[in-house]
Amino acid sequence: MRCKFLLYCVTACLLVSVFGAQLLGQDTTNGAYGHSDMIKTENKPVDVAKRNSNSIALFMCGDVMTGRGIDQILPHPSDPIIYESYMKSARGYADIAEQANDPIGYPVSFSYIWGDALEELEKVSPDVRIINLETSVTKSNDYWKGKGINYRMHPDNILSLSAAKIDICALANNHVIDWGYAGLVETLESLEGANIKTAGAGLNRVQAQVPAIKPVPGKGRTIVLAFGLKTSGIPSSWGAADDRPGVNLLKDLSDKSLGDIKKEVRRVKRKGDIVVASIHWGGNWGYDIPQGQIGFAHRLIDEAGVDLVHGHSSHHVKGIEVYRQKLILYGCGDFLNDYEGIGGHEAFRADLSLMYFATLDPLTGKLVELKLVPTQIRRFKIRRASKVDTHWLKDALNREGAKFGTRVSLSEDNRLILQWQ
User: Fold this and answer.
1) Residue 395: CB atoms within 10 Å
2) Which pairs count as long-range contacts for 35-44, CB under 8 Å and 24+ apart, including other chains?
3) Which residues, 6 or more positions from 5, have their beta carbon under 8 angstroms from its beta carbon?
């Protein structure tokens, strides 16, 4: 009888330890790195069907460059004359792309350029869609002299952004004033006319600093503040002034810059809001992430109340960090550009990119899940990346994410899922 009692006690203890671990959010299976130690399930991707109905889902990507060559294949192309040492007609970029691959057969529809991305957006149905729009939307001929490269899209082609139901465009970048201050003013007017919110540029300094706010009914709000740094190629003279249009240009990553952001976040953020800092920073090539960027991203989260850092400027994807359960994208790569067929930097595979689908808890701002859809630019259109290219992206993200403790796994449907420590 006593033996049976002891047996029951041992069995009960084992059951308590197993179920207790599950209740505490622990798992005894192998973790993302193949270790058998316990890993908290709060750090693991959550199936869409199991998400909290109050969570906010965001779509983000890297640079969307619908000007120049891409503008030429759309229904209302701008005057093709450009002022580059390499090319004198924007149509030349379309010609190069067609020579590299198959004919595009333009003019194309407004939705053409998004290709397979439209199906993915429809499938995921994110609450908010955010892009860095790296072009001027204008008929202005006042190109910025001496800059070398000037991107513009005709205002009548704004429907190409509406085709993807873009909610917010970050504009603090090094191409939005390529066709002068008048071009920037028309860009702002064109986007407002299309009911697309903007952040990072304005008719003066105050307007350039005002964030874009997108309410998510029944859940909260998504607030996007956009900034640019000179390290991305933004001319100093593009910074908005009290009496001049321009972009929200940070002079540096100093305490003062952080303090200004902190004040703005405190002014607008309330319970249930997700705050995104969209930053155009750094050069176009190279995987190295400067310590200054890492430290500033951490301080945005620790001190300024930012929930997600959306970094861009690099022409290729860079490492991903989850810092204190909050997502930092240091470089999202070019999502859409007209570089197809142009040689150089092939090792970085700038034709490959990602659709970043992030799910966040609006009460804490913490990352719940990040799913990545690998893409490729071909014939000036987004298409799903092949299995081979998806594996290339997976390897690159795992290599560059190792120092941050992040890793991606490949799902059966050729998508990538972020895992973090």
Assistant:
1) 11
2) 39/421, 42/325, 43/325, 43/419, 43/420, 43/421, 44/419
3) none
C-alpha span between 335 and 135 (Å, rounded): 13
Q: Phi/psi of residue 10, each to 5°?
A: -60, -45
> In this predicted model, what pLDDT tens digit does every residue of 236-273 receive, in sequence order?
999 999 999 999 999 999 999 999 999 999 999 999 99
Cα separation of 35 and 39, whole Å?
9
The set of residues, in sequence order, having a beta carbon less than 8 Å from that of 197 and lying 6+ positions away, is 167, 168, 169, 191, 212, 213, 214, 224
**pTM, two decimal places:** 0.88
What is the residue whose two structure tokens read 């702002």? 188
Task: Please count the CA atoms within 13 angstroms of the CA of 13 that sit on its side-chain side.
Answer: 6
List the structure tokens of 307.
Answer: 């929930």
Spatial neighbors of 1 by CB under 8 A, at least 6 apart, are none
* CA gap 370, 365 in Å, rounded: 13
* pLDDT per position as a tens digit, 270-298: 999 999 999 999 999 999 999 999 999 99
Distances (CA, A) of 232 to 225, 249, 250, 251, 317: 17, 11, 11, 12, 15
Whether 355 and 120 have beta carbons less than 8 Å apart is answered as yes
Q: Quote the DSSP letter at residue 157.
A: G
The b/e string for 232-243 (b: 16+ C-beta within 10 A; e otherwise) is: bbbeeebbbeee
Q: At what angle do helices 291-302 and 255-268 cross, to 10 degrees?
A: 30
Cα(121)–Cα(355) distance, integer angstroms: 9
Residue 364 has phi, psi (to 5 degrees) of -120, -20
Helices (H), 109-151: 117-124
312, 280 contact by CB (below 8 A): yes
Q: How far is CA 317 from CA 125, 161, 172, 366, in A?
A: 23, 22, 19, 22
| DSSP single-letter state for residue 326 | E
Bridge partners (DSSP) listed for residue 326: 323
**291: which 2 tokens?**
């310590």
